[in-house]
Specification:
203 residues; alpha+beta; Alpha-Beta Plaits; nine-stranded mixed sheet; 33% helix; Guanylate cyclase domain-containing protein; Nucleotide_cyclase
Length: 203
């Protein structure tokens, strides 16, 4: 897979950050023209979702993956806000694409941990865990068999430390625990194929 680095925002030393990864379903089955169009749509989706959530993607360290992206957010990123509002922005943008007749289906993974920048990409357990979650069979199957154009998976650490706080109306009941193994290691993630937040009822 071709990997490109966006070095606008460099990483200096070992850092503890929120990592976000996205991947488009069925990309490898497309011809070159459609792959180019999908990349453009994906970029628009991520830009719109970040803008609506008040996030500045120019401050993200991004590793481009052809059919997706692995990004490290700034140190001051509010993980609960990103899980809730950025995810919902992506979901809205995907619904708009479907209404326009140009659907895009994708997986979204998030984890928080230590990492740094290496010569050929990100180094550390945080990007590895994020990518394992993103590429897990259970997440791929959930997207393939579901009605939603987006499936979110977060690490067990993020679920315990962030989602269970219920900050920004995050709804723990929207997530289900999934355990899996990859390359000799065991992983646990929480999968959400609906909205990650529940809005309070108006009284």
């Amino acid at each position: 897979m071709l990997v490109m680095l966006d070095t606008v925002t460099p990483l200096d030393g070992l850092v503890y950050r929120l990592v976000v990864a996205v991947d488009v379903e069925g990309y490898s089955k497309l011809d070159a023209l459609d792959q180019s169009l999908v990349q453009s749509r994906l970029g628009e989706v991520l830009e719109v979702a970040a803008h609506e959530a008040g996030l500045d993607r120019s401050q993200w360290y991004r590793q481009l993956r052809g059919d997706g992206e692995l990004a490290v957010l700034p140190a001051d990123a509010d993980a609960a806000w990103v899980i809730g509002h950025f995810t919902e922005g992506v979901a809205r943008a995907l619904r708009e694409l479907r209404r326009a007749g140009t659907p895009l289906r994708m997986r979204l993974a998030m984890h928080c941990g230590t990492l740094t920048a290496g010569r050929f990409g990100l180094v550390g357990q945080a990007p590895i865990v994020t990518c394992r979650l993103l590429d897990s069979r259970v997440v791929r199957r959930t997207l393939a068999e579901g009605d939603s154009d987006l499936v979110l998976v977060i690490s067990e650490r993020l679920f315990d430390d962030v989602v269970l706080t219920r900050f920004h109306e995050l709804d723990p009941s929207s997530f289900r625990l999934s355990r899996f193994s990859a390359k000799g290691a065991s992983y646990a993630g929480y999968v959400c194929s609906g909205e990650p937040r529940v809005l309070p009822e108006l009284v």
